[in-house]
Amino acid sequence: MDYRGEQEQELEVLESIYPDELKVLNRNYPGVKFKVEVRLEPQLEDANGLTTEHTMCLEFELPERYPDEAPVIGIKAVETRPDEQDEEESEEEFDDHGNKVVRKLQSLPDQIHFDGFVPELSVLLEEQIDNDLLLGMQMCFTLISSVKELCETWFVEQLGKLERQHELELQAREREEQKKFRGTKVTRESFLEWRAKFRKELGIDQRDEKRRLEAHHGRMTGRTIFERGLAGDDEENEESLESAVTDKLRKL
After folding, report:
1. How many domains does the chain fold into?
2. Angle at 163 (CA atoms; ends 178, 168), nearest 5 degrees
3. Cis ω for the linkage preceding 67 (within 30 of 0)
4. Same structural domain for residues 152 and 212?
């Protein structure tokens, strides 16, 4: 095989396909080297949600026996963001309760970065060369196209995960907010527990017991108790206070 001729021919074809994206680093054989910038355009429902431009910079180095040997491919993910976007995102917003506002306008797509995907992408390209039997034929264009497709597919998958997580966070936040207005549910057991504690704190049971003892031992006649109001006023006040608190609890 005329390796020099194969490489020169493929390079000319690539230059015609990518006139602005391709830059030749070394045209001399052996050691042909060039760089291609692949701009990603993932298909999103809301195209305005993505403000960051993602570009995969691919650097190809062709071995002397290419295409019978696979090219050496270097991959670098590059992000480009408008300056004003950084200023807007630096301003956090909080609601009336002091909670940070969780907004979808934080732009979920802009939270996705390709740096972590690059190692996996390199492995996928190596597997494609073996599985598709690309050795022996000009393969650079095929690999460039695969990079674009794989990256855009991965981006959409990651966005779906972020959207689901975002929805779960909103639901959790909503449940927490509802708890603030729902209050504590009063059950018979919790009411009896509160009532016992309430009467103990005010000493109601002790005073009632004391009055019963005094009445039964003749230390105070019923008339005296009545005249002093011990049999009515205090108990009515205590019962009134207890009833008022009970009503408030039931309304919660």
Report:
1. 2
2. 25
3. yes
4. no
Tell me the pairing of strands 72-80 and 53-61: antiparallel
Whether 175 and 195 map to the same domain: the answer is no
How would you write the pLDDT of the chain (252 residues) with one tens digit per residue? 899 999 999 999 999 999 999 999 999 999 999 999 999 988 877 655 678 899 999 999 999 999 999 999 999 999 988 764 444 454 555 555 565 555 544 578 888 999 999 999 999 999 999 999 999 999 999 999 999 999 999 999 999 999 899 888 888 888 887 777 766 677 888 888 888 888 888 777 777 777 777 666 655 555 555 555 554 555 555 556 556 556 655 555
Rounded CA-CA distance 240/234 in Å is 10
Q: Are residues 152 and 45 in the same domain?
A: yes
Indicate the pTM of the whole model.
Answer: 0.62
Residue 151 and residue 176 in one domain: yes
| Residue 118's CATH number | 3.10.110.10
